[in-house]
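Revision sheet: structure tokens.
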Amino acid sequence: MEAQYNDVINWLENYPQLHTLIALCLLVIGAWLANWVVKRLLVRGLVRLLQATSVGKGQLLHDSKVISRLANIVPALILSGGIGLIPGLPETVIIIVRNVCGAFIILTVALAITHALMLANSVYERRPKARHKPIKGYIQLANIVIYSIAAILIIATLIDRSPLILLSGLGAMAAVLMLIFQDTLLSLVASVQINSNDIVRVGDWVEMPALSADGDVIDISLHTVKVQNWDKTITTIPTKRLISDPFKNWRGMQESGGRRIKRSIMLDQQSVHFLDDEECQHLHRFRLLDDYLKEKQTDIDKWNKQLKQQGQEPVNTRRITNIGTFRAYVDRYLRSHPGIHQQMTLMVRQLNPTADGLPMELYCFTNTVAWVEYEGIQGDIFDHLLAILPEFGLRVFQHPSGNDLRQMNLPGQAKSEPGVSSLG
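Predicted:
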């Protein structure tokens, strides 16, 4: 067998080009076989072994491709070590092949490390508190550093020079690079802050009036954040503006399960008065006010008895007002309304009087955050309150309209017929 091998070698020495070609083919086949053995046997066995652990459960380890990336190093090592044994190859070709294999190994290791970091992030996101303290921004920053180091090492390997030479050149170009990539660096810092502090997520409703953005976040990238407004237009916001400019994120409202109603009814202050006995008896018909009026009247009578002689004058006594009774009715109406969240703040209050009337504000929360349902609940509440105001002897304040002016009897003009304007 050895003699036959020597005869083949001696014969191939007479044909150096054929000898080189056969040796190259054998080297390539050997690298391919090594790659097949590693991926088919060793990698599959290691994956099955790791799948028994918490890290390898499900498809995380399979999808990460960490082990398969590292398996690609084996054929590169075989090619790099075996290329020098090929007879008849120029020294330049050997150096180029070794440099390319070295660069490929560096790239493979860098890809494997970044995939391992992504796998670590996927495992971390399984934790209950991971949503509030994500590490995705730090993972992205680490990936950029790894790729930058890998790029320097790959270039140094391809040109067969020390990486320190490239690093010394980068120091002189740092100022120029910072000027050129200023927006990228600012966006990178903003992205890290947004991810680490959980400022914005895809699906959040954000409102930034300065950039005419009011809608749902549909995409977050390194440089831009896309917001689909309610009119279906899309606003593109630079990522760094989410750090430097104020904006409103409605995520807290959506997660709380209640949406705020803060709206006022403008009352005509001239319609405010004390209730007489007939009006009180009339309001006792209201189921929500019967107990209130009884308790209020008992408290007032007890107070007035303490006045003794002075209590004979109405100006010295306490009496029930129509506006206070209406405020109590609204409060009880909201507390019995099925669309109002009873575990959140609920109050009915008067604001400072204005030239447009006396504002009575409703401050409460609906038990839904859906926009259409929220508007329906709010509309039903104010429909009812505006319609029931006359029962309390109150009027809504509003400025005179054109129809009000037409119905006025101006001096020196005859009354107009019903439905006919007196102005002409």
